[in-house]
Design goal:
mainly alpha
């Protein structure tokens, strides 16, 4: 599923960022591209419990995903505008393929998709007398 989402995001990005793309095509590609980004984020969050050996680290793992997402949101526009300023269309395509491909390769769900999720620790209720 992640590979399909990544390929769809690359295709949407190529159409979306192409200088000759008409607005009537670019706007739907924008929505589809954002949907792909949201789906990858949701897939990452959904696979997090399967990756952890200790359920007490779920908060730290979730925080790490948030920080990486924030870094991508912060670094994405400057990278795009730097590539766009080069005046060539090819670097934009290469950038999209490298960033989306890299994010898919780094997704740990590739190797742990079959591992059962971590069982939650049951709280012990004190006995009342």
């Amino acid at each position: 599923m992640a590979a399909g989402i990544g390929l769809a995001a690359i295709a949407c990005g190529v159409v979306l960022y192409h200088p000759a793309a008409p607005l009537t095509l670019a706007v739907p590609m924008l929505f589809l591209s954002q949907s792909c980004a949201s789906a990858i984020t949701a897939l990452t969050y959904a696979s997090t419990p399967r990756l952890l050996k200790d359920p007490s680290r779920l908060g730290a793992a979730t925080g790490f995903v948030v920080q990486v997402s924030g870094a991508g949101a912060m670094l994405g526009p400057p990278i795009y505008f730097a590539v766009l300023a080069s005046g060539s269309w090819a670097p934009i395509v290469v950038t999209l393929v490298v960033l989306w491909g890299g994010s898919l390769l780094l997704m740990p769900s590739w190797s742990t998709a079959r591992r059962p999720p971590v069982q939650a620790v049951k709280a012990v209720q004190p006995e009342t007398t």
